[in-house]
Structures are given as C-alpha cells and as structure tokens.
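Researcher: Checking consistency across runs. Here is Myrosinase 1 again:
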Amino acid sequence: MDSQFIALVATLVVSVHGCRKTELPPISHTMFPEGFIFGAATAAYQVEGGWNADGKGPNIWDNITHERPSFVANNNNGDVAADSYHRYKEDVQLLENIGFQMYRFSVSWARILPNGRINNVNKAGIDYYMNLIDELLAKGIQPMVTIYHWDLPQDLENIGGWTNPEIVTIFEDFADLVFRTYGDKVKWWITINEPYMVTKGYGADSFAPAAYLDLHGIVEYQVGRNLLLAHAKAYRLYQKKYSQQKGKLSMAFTGIFSIPKTDSQEDIAAAERTYQLTFGWFSHPVFVGDYPQEMKNRIEQLSRQEGRNTSRLPPFTQDEIDEIRGSADFYGLNHYSTVFVAEGTDQSSSDPKPSAMSDIGVTTSVDPRWPTGASVWLKVVPQGIRLNVKKICEEYCNPDIIITENGYDDDGSKFTDDPERIYYLETYYAELRQTIYTDGCNLKGHISWSLLDIFEWRDGYTKRFGLVHVDYNNSNRTRTMKKSAYWLKNYIEMHKIYYK
Ligand code: NOJ
C-alpha cells in the first residue's frame, strides 16, 4: 500500500536525522470512508417557481411576498425563482455531472394539496415530484425528501398555522399521502426542516408568516410543541403503515452552536444552556425524551419571576413524551456557523417582554478574524462543526448522523469564481473526517447547501449559496457550475477511484 510505504520512508528519514519520530496518518484519512454519501440540497419555495402553475395553491411565502413585498430584499419573491418546476431535468443533470449520490429536495405542500387538506389533491403536483424522483433514480441518485420546508399552505395559516393543535393531524394526513405515493422509491425522509427556525416565523418578523408578533415568549413554544407532535405522528404512521418500504426518517435539526467566550464556569454553562434551549429543544425530546431538564427549569423559573402561575413552556403528557421519544432513525444536522457566548443578556437589545431567544440569557459575539460569508451570521469556523457532531455523539448515544445542510454564501459579484467556498468546504470536510477517524462518530454523509443559487428567504437573491450559479437576469435562468462545483466533482471522483 502507498500509505505504508510513505509511513516507512517517513520513519527512516526521521531516524537517520535523529529527530522525534512522527506517524503520518494513513492516506485514506484525506478521504471519507467507503460508502460515505455526498449530496446536495434545495427546497421547494427557494427554487421551484411556478407559484400558481397547474393548480398549485398559495402558501405563506407566496402570500407575504405578494402582500408585503418589502418583507424581502429588493422586493424579490419566489414566483419564478430558479424555475426548477420547469427545469428540474437540468438540475438532475448537474447533480450527475458533479457526481452527487443524493439529492435532498422538499415537496411543496400547496402544490400537492392546494388547500393543505387531503380532500383536494392536485394531480399535476403529484406528477411533478414523481417525474423528479424518476429522473434522479434513472441516474442513480438517491432522493431524500423533506416533507415540510417552511412553505405552509395559506389556508392552513388562516386557521392559526403551526399554533393550532389541529395542524398535527393535518400534517399527518399530508405525510401519509406522500409516503403512500412516493415511498416505494424514496428511502430517506426529513419530516420537518429546522423546527427551531420555524418557531421564528411566529412572535417575530424573521420569516413568514411573521404572525402573532405580540405573543413572543409564548407562541414559539406552542409552535415547537405542535412541530414535535406532528413529526412524531408522521414517524409512527410510517412505522405502522409503511415499514416494509424500509425508509429512514429524521428531522433536520438546527440551533445556535456556540463556544464559551472565556473558560469561566459561567460562560461554559452559558454555552451548554444555548445548546439545550436551541438544538436540545427539539433533539432531546426525539432522542432522549421530553424537553431538556435545563430548559424546563429555566423557563419555569423565569415564568414565575414574571408573575405567572404556569410555565410559558407547555408540558407534554407522558403519552406524548413516549410517542416523540425514539422517533428518528438518524440525526439530520444543519450546520453552518458558530458563535461565542457569554453569560448574561445584552442590555442594549433588551425587550421587556420575554422571547425564546431572551430566555437563553446569553450574549453572542464572534471573533473578528473569522472569515465571513455574504450573510453576516455566516462565519467560517471549521472546528465548530466537529464540536457539534461530537456533542451529538455524546448527548444522544452515537446515532448515525447525516449533515443535511452545510454551505457558504457569497454576494454573486464574482460570478463562478468562488475560492472562499472551496476553502469553506475543504476546511469543514477536514474537521468532519476527524469526527469519524478521531472521535469515532457515526457520520454517514454530507449534503451541500445548495445545489443552486436560491431564494434566500428575507435576503431574496442577494445571497448566493449555490455550487451552481443561476442567472436571475436571464429568463432561461441559465445555470453555470462555479469553481467549487468542479473542486467538489474532483473530490468525489477521487473517492470513487480509490474505493473501486
Ligand atoms: C437553512 C434553511 O433550511 C435553508 O432554507 C436556508 O437557505 C439555509 N439555512 C441558509 O440560510
């Protein structure tokens, strides 16, 4: 083997010179293990367009961008987006060209069920995803389907959206249809993308529907509760009705990943609390059972100080705890960046009314030396992803993990010239390999965000996450591979040659 030969030469060289003997890592450690999955992702509202094509109903993003255009930078909206509704074959061709083995995309709820409910199914919507799945499978690319990626049908928002407990069974019905229709072809499922971020659409103006703004501190926890119950219902339904399809299900979890600002006990505790009240809020009920104790204690205590008789965090019943516990076959992690946290809330931004964010009670900051993406929140901190994966192994008993999103955004000014994205991928991959080879974590795959330059929510088309450039000034939405896509193609290719 080459690696043994290199190691032998290195040993001889150091022994001749009498220097300290060092071991070179095996050459295979520059790569991921055999079977590791490389994928790319998008989400329906961010790429499809066709907002009212062929019977699709309106969703909360159609609604907010039409009713309140200034909600998004440059009054952008997803009416056409990258036009993947008409150009999905080009997308699949790009996936094949780069060498991806998996494509994570989401189904648009209102494209399949225009009113959100099961009594009105849109055949054209069903066909669209069937065609996309068939196109992927024909090229040997595994679909990973996200059932909900933030585009709630407007009719469901009109009855309270995720605040209304009825949503739990309405979502279960939708999931049932999707499993029944596509389940013989799809073996990887994400029920809900980033439930933590979904809560920020309520009680805050950050995402659609930007509703119940006065109820922050309360509404986020009601929404979070319904999201967890909806996820668990879908999971149990799959187990009961579709287990012969042998698919694997999870959520795509996220939160605020932080490092203590100093090594003081207070800051170390602040980082742990940040983890438990963001990532732990959703992953603890799924992997351990119930909310993290620290989250329950803290919100209970703050609620009492505010003069309330009950906690703002509504509890689960024992049956609900049992239904949610164990409702994932792997851990789907969306990770981009890392912050420092210090104990105590930043006074200058204090709002007298609590929120899920202020409940954490920390001040965040960044190291000015960290390189940054076009989004201010996206700092390049490769060691953070390793720490996050390691934390998952420790907290949740070493589950299988797939990075369901990870990537870098630029402002598009350099067209396809994106060395910063290559640097990001290269350094994050190096840390991910450490989680496998050094930390012993069961990391099974990495899904890049995003295949294309997409509609980046409130930032519209001003922030570009794509490995592939999309020309938004051209009605053909011309796609051009960036340098990072070529870099990644070579990197994936190297694995295929080595493991052949
Ligand atoms: C996570 C979300 O799932 C995705 O929709 C978004 O584009 C990326 N973060 C980047 O902000």
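Researcher: Does this match what you'd expect to see?
Model: One thing to look at in this run: The domain at 2-498 is CATH 3.20.20.80 (TIM Barrel).
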